[in-house]
Amino acid sequence: MHKDIDTLIVTPEDMGRIDRAAALDLSSYGLMERAGQAVAAAALRRFPGALRFAVLCGPGNNGGDGYVAARALQEAGASVTVHALGATAALKGDAATAFARFPGAVAPLTAYAPQAGDVVVDALFGAGLSRDVPQAVAEIIEAVCRKAVLPVLAVDLPSGVDGRTGQVRGAAFEATATVTFMCRKPGHLLLPGRSLSGDLDVFDIGIPARLFAGHADHMRVNTPAIWRLDLPVQGRATHKYGRGHLAVFSGPAAATGAARLSAEAGLRAGAGLVTLLSPREALCVNAAHLTAAMLKPVDGDDDLSGLLGDARLQAFVLGPGFGDGERARGHVRLLAEGGRRLVLDADGISAFRDDPAALFSLFSGGSPRLVLTPHDGEFARLFPDLAGDGTLSKIDRARQAAARSNAILILKGADTVIAAPDGRVLVNENAPPWLATAGSGDVLAGIVGAHLAQGMPAFEAAASAVWRHGEAGRIAGEGLTAEDLPGAIPPWPE
Questions:
Q1: Is 2 in a helix, a strand, or coil?
Q2: Distance CA 273, CA 130 (A)
Q3: Whole-angstrom Cα distance, residue 263 to residue 330?
Q4: Which of 174, 249, 329, 419 has the most CB atoms at less than 10 Å from its CB?
């Protein structure tokens, strides 16, 4: 796979344009032949004990890939049965050519009867599906996945998964593995499509990388290659202030733990100093639990204004366990007016639920200084219209929200999306499921804050924090609690 497109995510619409552009220079049937051969190779490699391959072919090019795969499987000596959705006489173009070159019999889809030992090759619909699957397909999915429980190898994307949103259109195969071509589609990475795709093989069928630069959008999988050049530089002369000073706001005495998690994560993620800004009534509680982090009393805007006289204090985290919406709004206003960089999480986000525009106006000018870290519920408090629009994918929602707020959006979940106001989007994929635990988001906020304090651009600070957070979850292992995460934050990747 070409390094420039290895992490690229391409919408089905853009992939269609790329395919059409490639056909001007290359044989489109040659591309289909390579795709189908890749599917057959994956089927033989993954399922050597299959008694029969049941290849289910749709009426378009995805079905054409299926006919090529069926022919290759038959030539390899495998037992193959092929079933078609719709009239094969209606096939056009390359799909018709692929069908004509398959030497065996083709039965109607409705005639397929799952048998023990079958492996289903799902070539019914690819990533371009944008409507509910027909009833006949839904019945086959039910028979294969719910009754016979057969392994499925999906071609491009499991049939029934919308390639743009990852949502299920009526019903969808749950694949053991999926073979796609050139690059991933949003449906491979956004839930529930991610879980329905199984193991993903991305196969290079020879489309020139230059075509992706001309047609693909600014979406990629979140990997260190994207932000490595923006990592903090540390030399022999580096001192603690050179590594950045992060401040984290604490909640009241009965709700201090979340902020301490953020502060500990900030230290572990590389901030040279971390100060916990605590209400006076919570000072004793916080002091009893802090060692490396410093502690400052902050009860209101006057206290915060005094601290902002220190120009070295540039990055803040506000929200974890904070509780007081009115005080949160006042602090955010002072930080914005002072040109500071802010991670706004949890209660900090909810403080602006009645007037999101007030928050956005505070950070409306210049390069992004605000990082928002909502889960779906918090996102709906700031962007109710986007949250309620069922036509938008998670990527669409995050991208539009980032543009509206002039903020970096970390829309959290098992398929976390990071979006910038300029349209750049990353989708994270390294987080294990056991990272979904109370306090995990507080740790993430602290890592983002540490990266901002060290001078990273906001988008790269957020993206690298999400990645390190995922790696920390993997290192800490199943059964982790949030307290385990700061100590598991990995060093910067080599």
A1: coil
A2: 50
A3: 21
A4: 419
Angle at 178 between CA 173 and CA 183, to 5 degrees: 130
The residue behind tokens 């630069």 is 213
Structure tokens belonging to residue 393? 């994918």
Alpha carbons 163 and 187: distance in angstroms, whole number: 4
| Dihedral, 10, 14, 17, 23 alpha carbons, nearest 10 | 10
Cα distance between residue 331 and residue 306, in whole Å: 12
Taking the C-alpha atoms of residue 469 and residue 456, their distance in angstroms, rounded to an integer, is 17
Amino acid 485: pLDDT: 98
Token pair for residue 226? 């994207």
Q: What is the pLDDT of residues 112-153, one digit of tens each?
A: 999 999 999 999 998 989 899 999 999 999 999 988 899 999
Give the burial class of 148: count Cβ atoms within 10 A of its Cβ; 0-12 exposed, 13-18 middle, 19 or more buried.
middle
DSSP assigned state of 440: H
Neighbouring-strand partners of residue 372: 344, 409
For residue 219, what is the DSSP state? E
Q: How far apart (Å, rounded) are the C-alpha atoms in residues 143 and 228?
A: 47
Low-confidence ranges of the chain (pLDDT < 50): 1, 236-237, 239
The encoded tokens of residue 296 equal: 């400052």
DSSP helix/strand/coil, 121: strand
CA distance 11 to 9: 7
User: Is the pTM value of this prediction over 0.70?
Assistant: yes
- What are the Cα distances from residue 267, in Å, to 36, 72, 264, 443? 51, 56, 5, 11
- Residue 256 is predicted with a pLDDT of 97
User: Cβ distance 265 to 486 under 8 Å?
Assistant: yes
- pLDDT (0 to 100) of residue 235: 52
Q: How far apart are CA 429 and CA 452, in angstroms?
A: 22
> What's the one-letter identity of residue 415?
D
